Amino acid sequence: MNLFKGKINFIYLVFIVLGFFLFQISKNWHNASPFFYGFAENKETEINLDQEVQINTIYVSPGEEVSAGQLLMEVQQASIDLKINTAHFDLEQTGVLAEKQEQQILDKIAQLEALKTKKTNLTEAQIQQINKISNAKQSLINDLESITISTLSDSLSSTQQEIELLQNNLDQEIRIIDVEVQQLKTQLKTIRRPTDIAQQKLQQEMLFHKEEQEKLMIYAPTDGLIGNIHCKKGEYINAFTTLITFYERNPTIVKGFIHESLLLQVKIGDSLTVVSSLHPSHQIKGTVMGLGSRIIEIPERLRKIPELKTYGREVLIEIPPQNPFLQKEKVMLNALNANNDLSWASMIIPQTIFNPQPLASESQKK
After folding, report:
1. Which of 22, 15, 25, 180 is nearest to 111 (CA)?
2. Interacting residues of 260 by C-beta distance below 8 A, sequence separation 6+
């Protein structure tokens, strides 16, 4: 009888201890921080252009790792190529036209210099002829005694006047030619100014178009991975059509879904601990950067009990790029306590509760 009574007292004691333990668990459970699941995502960038282009060369393939600034794709736009070719042609034509005008002026100057030489030689020849005739007359007069000194003097004076007249005419014609030559030389100095201005303008235009053409080259924005390539060599692509999708090497965002009963316990700016569901030692601190605007069905993979449909709110958490997670890796999300440690709920709740193992198949049972 005493033994039976002792057993009853022991059972009462066990129930009291168990009740106290359950009371503490219940108390801590309600005070625990929110705990939910999510998956890590790489930031995806869709690369496109705001104008129609033709694909010339593709230098990468899907899944390839690339470095920041690496050339991914070379494209061209027919209109820009046409503008560059037109500006280049106009630049050459402007230079040819200027050279042609310069050559015309130089030829005109040469013609005037030749005319001046010709007139000078002609006048000198006329003067020599006049002097020759004058000398012959003087010799004849000297042989004739009937010719008086006054007659000889008149003859010499007439000859001198004729020579001076020829010389004056020559000087006047040379002055006219020199003035015209000087004007042409001045024009030659200034003819390059409008040409230089036009060429500078065309060169700037060519530079602008080449810079626009350079912008059409597709470079890797950061270190990362090539996703899908939505075009092929030689293809014409419309403006704003995605050419390449690009991923950063490591996930930078975690997308989670918090149960609707815990909506008020998470807000933007909160710090959360992100822990790999497969490798608990892989964990990192994240910050809530966005909250969904509606209640949606939580994906089966992220439910605590996959078979039970639950609803909640999407939560976006930003994590540092240096992290151990893989793309689409499932992670556990839990708020940090005052000491920046994991909350009690994530440590006390076994993972198998939220990730029940599938039942063994009939063959496995056997």
Report:
1. 180
2. 295, 310, 311, 312, 313
In this structure, is residue 109 part of a structural domain? yes
Starting at the edge strand found earlier in the chain, the sheet holding 224-229 runs: 44-47, 244-248, 224-229, 65-66
Specify which residues 286 forms β-bridges with: 272
Here the tokens at position 5 are 């009574």
What is the tens place of the pLDDT at every residue in 275-312? 998 888 898 999 999 999 899 999 999 988 888 899 99
Residue (of 199, 198, 206) closest to 86 by Cα position: 206
Count of domains observed in the chain? 3
Is residue 93 domain-shared with residue 114, that is, in the same domain? Answer: yes
What's the rounded Cα separation, in Å, for the pair 235 and 233?
6
Phi/psi for 261 (5° steps) reads -75, -10
CATH number of residue 98's parent domain: 1.10.287
Please enumerate in sequence order all residues whose Cβ is within 8 A of that of 221, keeping only pairs 6 or more positions apart, or say none.
45, 47, 68, 246
Q: Structure pTM?
A: 0.46
Distance CA 16, CA 142 (A): 172
Helix (H, G, I), strand (E, B) or coil at 276: strand
The answer to whether 246 touches 65, Cβ cutoff 8 Å, is no
Q: What angle do CA 29, 35, 36 make, to 5 degrees?
A: 145
What is the domain range of residue 318?
33-43+250-351
